[in-house]
Amino acid sequence: MKTNPPIKTKNTDRRSREFLTSDEIDRLIAGARKSGRHKHRDTTMILVAYRHGLRVSELVALRWTQIDLDTGLIQVNRKKNGLSCAHPLFGPEIRALRKLKRDAVDSPYVFITERKGPITTSTFRKLLARAGKNAKLKILVHPHMLRHSTGYKLANEGVDTRSIQQYLGHRNIQHTTKYTEISPDKFNEFWHD
Question: What are the residue ranges spanned by the domains of the chain?
């Protein structure tokens, strides 16, 4: 007897969109500060993932050798055959990473557990979901939304598509154009009252 595979729920059935606004990111970070034993680590993970458009696998694999706090650079090693490159670090990230490094035990990984091993993707998904609930966001939050939020923010700020492509490490620009397609700012000049 042949059984049909279960019907997969579409993302649009769960969420109305796959990105967060800058205000929602700020609320998400504030939500991460409300619970858990590792508030600073958790908020720093969200900030770094968002600012650099990191996939969850790239975030949890981040090592201190990829970060130069003196020059303010982070080497982003992309997964999924993406293009790796260096990104600048800015004030909030540098301060958060310096504090994390001061308080950290000797580990090659930036984001670690109490057992001194790297955070797992599952742990990050759970802490992000908890932060979303604490922030009272009306949308279910998952890690890849941070990456989409980066692309959306850059597109809304008028950053050209090629620069967004390089920043996010996309080999194919078709993966990048979705951010400019959903940007409402592209319609601002349609009507002049």
Answer: 17-184
